[in-house]
Each structure stands twice: as C-alpha cells, then as structure tokens.
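Appendix B, record 7
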Amino acid sequence: MLDTSQDEPQALPSVAEVPLAQAAVPPAPLSPEGRGCLFALSQPPLMIFLAVIGSLLLFAAVHDLYLL
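Structure tokens (predicted):
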C-alpha cells in the first residue's frame, strides 16, 4: 500500500547505517535453463529432427489415406 501521509519525507540512511543483510544485491544473470521452450525450438538440429519426424508422419498418413 502506498504511503499517502503528508509528513516530511525522511532522509535515506547512509551506507554505514544499512546492515549488510539489507544491502542491495544485484540479481544473478539468467541461466541457460531460464530461457524456456522458444529458445530450444530455435536450434537448427532440433528443427531438422522435428521436420524429419513430421514428414514421416505426413507420408504415412498420405499412404494410409490414398494407397490403402
């Protein structure tokens, strides 16, 4: 909830007054695992594999529909 009081703003504590546990810690950089599925789908070997499997399924479906 926002502080909507009309009091005078308080001065920020100096660096020496802030305990080490409350000091600002920069966030860690994103690990490769955090990139998600769209990153994995952009990899060429995976896309080639999926294209081969998809074409085999397509050829099997066409064979079943029209040649059997």
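Remarks on this record: The CA atoms of residues 41 and 50 lie 10 Å apart. Helices lie at 37-41, 44-67.
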